[in-house]
Write a structure and sequence with these properties.
Order of helices and strands: EEEHEEHEEEHEHEEEH
Number of helices: 5
Number of strands: 12
Strand content: 25-35%
Mean pLDDT: 95
Largest sheet: 8 strands, mixed
Helix content: 25-40%
Structural class: alpha/beta
Shape: globular
Bound molecules: cytidine-5'-triphosphate
Distance between the termini: 9 Å
Radius of gyration: 17 Å
Length: 215
């Protein structure tokens, strides 16, 4: 039986102004890390592209550590061609400083209105060059969760998107618990309910395996 090759992203990205200051978000990488473990456990060849995170490497999977959105984009491009499924659970920073100083700025010299620019939308860019890869996104939202998630599924040409209310109690960034509704292209919704990230990751990977790769 052919081994499924999966590429999973997790964690935040950091976009530095100078060597000690950056733009980021509270993601810890737990959800994507749990998905990578679940993928490895069902026998998929697993590459985890992980932004800055305290989580350890996974035995039996390849962990590629990155810092910025640009690093993550390049790591994903290197492995995208040869993967069967991309699960993009990273909380990629949407903006970055346009200029990065080589040395720490002194407090009085800090630019209070630094110029920002958008980071590459990794999932969108990969969706434009995809061949047969299955693309799974995550939508981290605090309001209109299902509508915004459906919009992303269409816009980024995804096969499915996990809608994630990061504002709800006991879900989202840094928590060990989460709640996921998986919206499939075509409109069906699979409600995985609430659970630990480990439980939800296993349910998600089992579902994706059955749905997209059943022999
Ligand atoms: N994503 C990405 N590259 C970015 C931003 C997001 O690949 N620069 C991916 C995320 O990993 C996720 C999906 O796109 O799988 C949706 O991310 P989200 O942050 O929810 O949405 P955005 O596309 O950034 O849109 P908005 O900030 O307007 O909600």
């Amino acid at each position: 039986m052919k081994k499924i090759r999966c590429l999973i992203t997790a964690g935040p990205t950091r976009e530095y102004f100078d060597p000690v200051r950056f733009v980021s978000n509270p993601s810890t990488g737990k959800m994507g890390w749990a998905i990578a473990n679940a993928a490895k456990d069902i026998g998929w060849d697993t590459i985890l592209v992980l932004g800055p995170s305290a989580l350890p490497d996974i035995d039996g999977a390849e962990t590629v550590r990155v810092v910025s959105a640009q690093d993550m984009f390049e790591a994903c491009k290197r492995h995208f061609d040869s993967c069967d499924i991309l699960i993009m659970s990273a909380a990629v920073s949407d903006v970055r400083p346009k200029f990065r100083l080589p040395n720490k700025a002194k407090k009085d010299a800090i630019d209070l209105r630094p110029e920002l620019e958008r980071t590459p939308d990794i999932l969108l860019e990969l969706s434009k060059i995809k061949k047969n890869q299955v693309l799974i996104g995550f939508a981290a939202e605090t309001q209109n969760v299902m509508d915004y998630a459906k919009d992303k599924l269409e816009r980024k040409n995804l096969d499915a998107i996990a809608a994630n209310n990061v504002g709800a109690a006991g879900a989202g960034f840094a928590s060990d618990m989460n709640k996921i509704d998986l919206i499939l292209r075509g409109g069906d919704v699979v409600d995985f309910g609430a659970g630990t990230k480990t439980e939800l990751a296993k349910q998600l990977v089992d579902f994706l395996s059955e749905r997209f790769f059943a022999e």
